[in-house]
């Protein structure tokens, strides 16, 4: 198991607020918390952009086609472009999982490519909803993401009834993409041990909403040792 400090683990985390009743005040509070905890990025719904609070060193991610992926590619591309214009430098897009399951891998690749072409200067993460797929479909989704020049593959939205991230899915995704793409584990990561498990499986980024809780064990230790 990897030995990381809280500060090191925080640098894997996209501190995420995607709840449907999120308010501007929630976004401002999330940015302040992310800056305090030292996370790598924050991740919000695109209609919450631009943000009023100062981001400091934080990267700003927005989701696209979220959470169903059942949007026209042109809509996803426009949504992504609008989010980047409003300040996002990372986009987390959802594929059409149903198309993938039906075997239409070409349309999935084209969908990703449409978003990629719309945001040439931004980092693109592709959410494949791994818990809803079998291993072959996960591999197909990863290869389609690579072919469409994505930067990351990501396990989950956290909204699908099939579940969120698993170490098995992360390990499989990493085995397919190698060092060519990053792997983001997201959905259901609520403890320090779960976060470390995902990193040990190959995750290079984590999507977490309860970041303070995940880092809490080490934060308490750090605070205690400082007195």
From TrEMBL:
<dbReference type="InterPro" id="IPR028581">
    <property type="entry name" value="DeoC_typeI"/>
</dbReference>
<dbReference type="GO" id="GO:0004139">
    <property type="term" value="F:deoxyribose-phosphate aldolase activity"/>
</dbReference>
<keyword id="KW-0456">Lyase</keyword>
<comment type="similarity">
    <text>Belongs to the DeoC/FbaB aldolase family. DeoC type 1 subfamily.</text>
</comment>
<dbReference type="Pfam" id="PF01791">
    <property type="entry name" value="DeoC"/>
</dbReference>
<dbReference type="GO" id="GO:0005737">
    <property type="term" value="C:cytoplasm"/>
</dbReference>
<comment type="function">
    <text>Catalyzes a reversible aldol reaction between acetaldehyde and D-glyceraldehyde 3-phosphate to generate 2-deoxy-D-ribose 5-phosphate.</text>
</comment>
<dbReference type="InterPro" id="IPR002915">
    <property type="entry name" value="DeoC/FbaB/LacD_aldolase"/>
</dbReference>
<dbReference type="InterPro" id="IPR013785">
    <property type="entry name" value="Aldolase_TIM"/>
</dbReference>
<feature type="active site" description="Schiff-base intermediate with acetaldehyde">
    <location>
        <position position="154"/>
    </location>
</feature>
<protein>
    <recommendedName>
        <fullName>Deoxyribose-phosphate aldolase</fullName>
        <ecNumber>4.1.2.4</ecNumber>
    </recommendedName>
</protein>
<dbReference type="GO" id="GO:0016052">
    <property type="term" value="P:carbohydrate catabolic process"/>
</dbReference>
<dbReference type="InterPro" id="IPR011343">
    <property type="entry name" value="DeoC"/>
</dbReference>
<keyword id="KW-0704">Schiff base</keyword>
<keyword id="KW-0963">Cytoplasm</keyword>
<dbReference type="GO" id="GO:0006018">
    <property type="term" value="P:2-deoxyribose 1-phosphate catabolic process"/>
</dbReference>
<dbReference type="GO" id="GO:0009264">
    <property type="term" value="P:deoxyribonucleotide catabolic process"/>
</dbReference>
<feature type="active site" description="Proton donor/acceptor">
    <location>
        <position position="92"/>
    </location>
</feature>
<feature type="active site" description="Proton donor/acceptor">
    <location>
        <position position="184"/>
    </location>
</feature>
<comment type="pathway">
    <text>Carbohydrate degradation; 2-deoxy-D-ribose 1-phosphate degradation; D-glyceraldehyde 3-phosphate and acetaldehyde from 2-deoxy-alpha-D-ribose 1-phosphate: step 2/2.</text>
</comment>
């Amino acid at each position: 198991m990897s030995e990381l400090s809280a500060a090191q683990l925080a640098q894997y985390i996209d501190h995420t607020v995607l709840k449907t009743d999120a308010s501007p005040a929630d976004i401002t509070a999330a940015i302040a918390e992310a800056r305090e905890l030292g996370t790598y990025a924050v991740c919000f719904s695109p209609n919450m952009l631009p943000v009023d609070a100062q981001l400091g060193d934080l990267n700003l991610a927005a989701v696209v086609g979220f959470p169903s992926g059942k949007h026209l590619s042109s809509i996803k591309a426009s949504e992504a472009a609008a989010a980047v214009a409003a300040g996002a430098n990372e986009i987390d897009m959802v594929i059409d999982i149903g198309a993938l399951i039906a075997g239409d891998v070409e349309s999935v690749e084209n969908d990703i490519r449409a978003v990629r072409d719309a945001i040439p200067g931004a980092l693109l993460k592709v959410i494949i909803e791994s818990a809803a797929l079998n291993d072959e479909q996960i591999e197909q989704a990863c290869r389609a993401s690579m072919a469409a020049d994505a930067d990351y593959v990501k396990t989950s939205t956290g909204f699908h009834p099939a579940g969120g991230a698993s170490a098995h899915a992360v390990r499989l995704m990493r085995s397919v993409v190698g060092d060519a793409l990053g792997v983001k584990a997201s959905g259901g990561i609520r403890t320090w041990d779960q976060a470390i498990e995902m990193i040990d499986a190959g995750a290079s980024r984590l999507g977490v909403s309860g970041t303070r809780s995940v880092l809490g064990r080490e934060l308490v230790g750090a605070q205690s040792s400082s007195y």
